[in-house]
Each structure stands twice: as C-alpha cells, then as structure tokens.
Write a structure and sequence with these properties.
Layout (H helix, E strand, L loop, with lengths): L1 E4 L4 H12 L4 E4 L2 H11 L10 E13 L2 E12 L17 E11 L12
Parallel strand pairs: 1-2
Antiparallel strand pairs: 3-4, 4-5
Length: 119
C-alpha cells in the first residue's frame, strides 16, 4: 500500500491515477483546505482573491534616549468576505477578521555632519 498526501492536487491526483492503473493499493490523505477546494470546484463556487478591508489600529511610541524609541502597536482588519485566509466552512456565517500586534524598537543613526550648532 502506498500513502499519498495531497491527493486532490494536480500532482497528487495524477500520481494516484497512475498508481491505480498499475494495480497498486493507494491510501491518500486530504487536508480540510483540499476538501473545501474540491467541493468548490465540484459545485462551481469561486471566490475572488481580492476584497475590501477596514483597517483600525492604535499605537504608542516613547522616546527612551535621544536616538532610541520604544513602541507598541495593535491593529485589526475586517474583511468583506470569508475567504481571505484561503479557508471557509459550509457553516460559516461571519467574514474574516484578523489582528496584528507588534513591539517596535527604533534606533536613529546619528550623523555628526548634520548636527546644527544653534547658529
């Protein structure tokens, strides 16, 4: 018996077909995303890879020294479809929302040629 992963993909499906033609016993694994894509192709459902999103966020930046800043940012995006991440389920009723957070450390390179003397 031969195990094939990605059995609904282009390469995997052709590999399985050739192995079955040779009389091999084939066991193949299909991930949930592959099951969804196969169902969408079968039912002729298409999703656009582009969508509108509404971004929102807030951040704080504090100067630690004259040339070093430390910051924190958090934000979110609301998408107008449920397929932005490449996955949806038949029972899904909500659109995609994703969140981002980051810590930022900024070091400004000081150049003595550009320092003004106060003149």
């Amino acid at each position: 018996m031969i195990l094939v992963t990605g059995g609904t993909g282009l390469v995997g499906s052709h590999l399985i077909w050739h192995l079955l033609q040779k009389g091999e016993k084939v066991l193949y694994h299909v991930s949930p995303n592959e099951k969804l894509r196969a169902r969408q192709e079968r039912d002729n459902i298409s999703y656009s890879p582009l969508t509108m999103v509404i971004p929102a966020g807030i951040g704080v930046k504090v100067g630690i020294r004259n040339f070093i800043d430390l910051g924190f940012e958090i934000g979110g995006r609301y998408a107008f479809n449920d397929y932005l991440d490449g996955f949806t389920s038949p029972t899904s009723t909500a659109n995609d929302i994703y969140y981002i957070s980051s810590f930022v450390l900024v070091y400004r390179i000081r150049n003595r040629d550009f320092i003004l003397d106060g003149d």
